[in-house]
Amino acid sequence: MTAPHPAPADSHTPDKERTMNRSIRRLLTAAGCTMLAGHAALAQPLTTAFTYQGELSAGGSLASGTYDMRFTLWSDAAAGGQQGASLCSDNIAVVNGTFAVSLDFGSQFAGQRRWLQVEVRTDTGAACAAGTGFSTLAPRQEVTVAPHASFAISASSANNATLFAGQPASFYLNAANLTGTLSDVRLSPNIPTLSSSSVWTGIPAFNGGVSGTSAPFSVDSTNLVANLNADQLDSLDSTAFARIGISNTFTGVTNTFNAITVDSARVTSATGGTAFIDFYDNTTARWRVAKSTTNDFSLIDLAPATDVTRFFVSASTGNIGIGNTSPQRPLHVGNVAPATGNSQGLMRFASGASTGNFRQFDVGVRNISNNPATDYDFIINDADRAGDEFHISWETGNVGIGTSTPAQKLDVAGTVRCHVVEITGGADLSEKFNITPCNTPLQPGMVVCIDAANAGALRLANAAYDKTVAGIIAGANGVQPGMILSQPGTLASGDVPVALTGRVWALVDAATSPVTAGDMLTTSDTPGHLMVAADHARVPGAVVGKAMTSLAQGQRGYVLVLVNLH
């Protein structure tokens, strides 16, 4: 009478309930026969005790060994009150699954329905009265007719039947003598059948299959089962696995996904530390998207020997760094102190068309060789042309338009067009000339003439009323040229700026005549000096300009001149 699905004797399973249910059926038969046989010897009065026999399985096999069992009698199948005392049978010998105990609850069988509750544990040497370690078998088993037969002892008209259907009571105590088919309606509702839907209120255990080689059970269907929960999968319960349709939290240090498609995702650091997702190329980590302990966002390149942050967003300022982890502006490109190599703070702007035409410009601070003379300059560069369109030298501060090597504060390689040019750093228009050397050192304010012996060059004036007079060397007394003209590589170039028009301080010799504002000035016999043009017959073509300040007779010094050659 072994249960179809045996389980350990100390576990609470429907299998065990099934085993005990059948054991009680044997109990009723045995008890009935015993009590009938006892009536034949009325000289020995019957007591209220009866014999309980059962069969016990453990681990899929008939149990053998020593067990402790406790028995209680109840007035209801699930609730109710206990009837009589609790009976404890210590060190019950179980041989090939079979055991028998004598139970005496007293006068508890007076025609009312009663249920037997059984608790069992493997004998540990502890006294049966020690309550720990017992497992209660459920449900309680209803005690049927046989034990109630003791109530008939007082019936003087009852006869003792020593035989039933021609067989003694011992015949019905042997399961081998029971044959035939038991109909489904005779089975307890706790026993599931193949032809009906069963509701399992207990915890079933499936021990089928061959351990390590086959599954404990199989399902002959491809249909999904609604609300099926896998309590253990690879030794983990259902809470350890991600579920579709809900938010999932991954708590492992590394979670690997070969491919994943999501509408939305959240990566959370439960401890307030870093949270990140790594992207792999095969087995090599390549990129990391991360949140720092201060909630900064980073895109990190994992390929170099030392990880490099390519993109950074500061949580505290909102500033964005490209190649920079401490951006000082809303957009900060490049790094003044890179961990490795050189940092180029360049951005490229590009546009194109499907026809193949395109244009791309680099804007920012370029660093190629870490050389202050050539690098660290701010540039705007057409990536498809040589040279920079716009260039600011870090070393000199000079600005170049159309040149990568600006020699002046503004160096334009090309034509400048504008409505108005206002110059505040000088007061004359000069050209650069080469001046033929002489015994007198050159200095700003000296008057010069055309050198007929050297094309395009000038010489120091040294004769009165010289009609080859060309201008005055600019820059005396702090008044600088406002505009300087030159064309390097041609005759229209040189080293010395000479004022051709405008205001300039000039050296004047007033030995023969004082200078007053408005006087016309011409060359003198004193090298590089002017004088008042008093001989009107010799004036045409020899006048440099007009005096704007005065100089006393007999003195040499500077006079402000409005240059106007005529």
Structure characterization notes:
With 566 residues, the protein is mainly β. It folds into four domains: 14-177, Sandwich (Immunoglobulin-like); 275-343; 366-412, no CATH class; 428-564, Virus Head Decoration Protein, Chain: A, CATH 2.40.300. It contains three helices and 31 strands. It has helices at 14-38, 145-148, 169-172, and strands spanning 50-55, 57-58, 61-62, 65-74, 82-94, 98-103, 114-122, 135-136, 141-143, 275-281, 284-291, 297-301, 308-313, 320-322, 331-333, 345-352, 358-366, 377-382, 390-392, 399-401, 410-412, 428-433, 447-450, 458-460, 469-473, 481-485, 496-509, 520-523, 530-532, 543-547, 556-564. The radius of gyration is 59 Å and the shape is rod-shaped.
Write the layout of secondary structure elements.
Elements: H1 14-38, E1 50-55, E2 57-58, E3 61-62, E4 65-74, E5 82-94, E6 98-103, E7 114-122, E8 135-136, E9 141-143, H2 145-148, H3 169-172, E10 275-281, E11 284-291, E12 297-301, E13 308-313, E14 320-322, E15 331-333, E16 345-352, E17 358-366, E18 377-382, E19 390-392, E20 399-401, E21 410-412, E22 428-433, E23 447-450, E24 458-460, E25 469-473, E26 481-485, E27 496-509, E28 520-523, E29 530-532, E30 543-547, E31 556-564
Parallel strand pairs: 14-15, 20-21, 22-26
Antiparallel strand pairs: 1-6, 2-3, 4-5, 4-7, 7-8, 7-9, 10-11, 11-12, 12-13, 13-14, 16-17, 17-18, 18-19, 19-20, 22-27, 23-24, 23-25, 25-27, 27-31, 28-29, 28-30, 30-31
